[in-house]
Structure formats: structure tokens, C-alpha cells
Specification:
Elements: E1 3-6, H1 14-25, E2 30-34, E3 37-43, H2 47-57, E4 66-68, H3 72-78, H4 83-92, E5 97-102, E6 118-122, H5 127-136, E7 140-144, H6 157-164, E8 170-173, E9 183-186, E10 193-196
Parallel strand pairs: 1-8, 2-8, 4-6, 5-9
Antiparallel strand pairs: 2-3, 3-7, 4-7, 5-6, 9-10
Length: about 210
Amino acid sequence: MSEFFVLHPDNPQLRLIKLAVKIIQGGGVIVYPTDSGYAIGCQIANKGALDRIRQIRQLDDKHNFTLICRNLSELGSYAVVDNAAFRLLKSHTPGPYTFILKGTREVPRRLLQPKRNTIGLRVPNSNIVQALLNELNEPLMSITLTLPDQEYQFSDAQDIYDSLKNRVDLVIDGGPCGMTPTTVVDLSEGEVNILRVGKGDPRTLV
């Protein structure tokens, strides 16, 4: 059965953050709040945890995963970013956007979209996420938490725990964080291609 932590959204308790990161580093799968809804994540290097997330979400190997980064500098270590993309990223991070870019050699191949070698990257505007990443000291492999039989993603941590307590290792309750996913923007071909309109305003991207 999974753990259930209640964290303050503005001032997350360091003791619980440290315990959460120990769970991640031990191969755990966690559910956590972001600025655009709840997400499910694990450590980048842990193949077993990634496979568990694939099973929970029922994903094939063509699905783009996302690396949750602390800042633009960290994002640039995992993605090929030209000058135009850098300007766009700088003006939209942190925020509710996921950017699809070509991955660098720092990204494990199993996380890349196999035909295009792309990866999703994002910098959420969330104190809980920032605290987790600062303690983890690396990006978090992540994806929106929407179960195969759901039309909308979860908005309540207790509902998540009731549904997934035997399938994940930790659920972090950071309060309600909405049900609108990120706006997804493909920058991998050198131009702006909006793949999904979500919480982030697409009009600011073009």
C-alpha cells in the first residue's frame, strides 16, 4: 500500500520532501501535484519504475514522456535548443507548457520517441515540484495522470489514493490543482507546432 503525504502548496515541509525523494531514489513511482493537474513520475534511470507507469497508463513505446526540470539551464542539458526555441522557452518557463524537442545524449533512449528521438520537457510553476527537484538534484520522468478509462484527469489526491494505492508508492496531496493539462508545443522541427491546447495560452506562442 502506498504512502500518502499532505504538503503545503506554498511552503512544502522539507522532512516530507526528503522522504518523497528517498522513495523516488529507491525505485518508487509517485503521484504529485503540478501547476496543471496531478502527474505520475519516477527517477530517470529506473527502467522498472518506467515500466510500471507504462502499465498504469497503458502506453505504447511511441508515447512521448516528459522530463520535469528545475529551470531552463537544466532543460538545456537534455534537449537540443536553438536560439529561437531558447527565446520561447525563456518567456514561457516556468509555466503550464510542455515542449517537444530533440533529446541529447543525456536522455536515456527508452524515454525518447523512437522514430523522432524527441522528449517532452517542462518547468512547472509549483513550489512542491521545485522542492522535489532541488532535493532529487535531477529531472523527474513524468506524465499526466489520466487512467485509460478516464475522460478527465484526477483533481483530488484522495481519489487518486483510493484508485492507485496498490499500484504506486506515494501520493502527494498538494490540494486541488485543476483538471486542465499543459499546452503541448512541438519545437523539434524548428517551428512552433501546437499539438494540444491546454492551460497555457497558445496565442502567446506564435
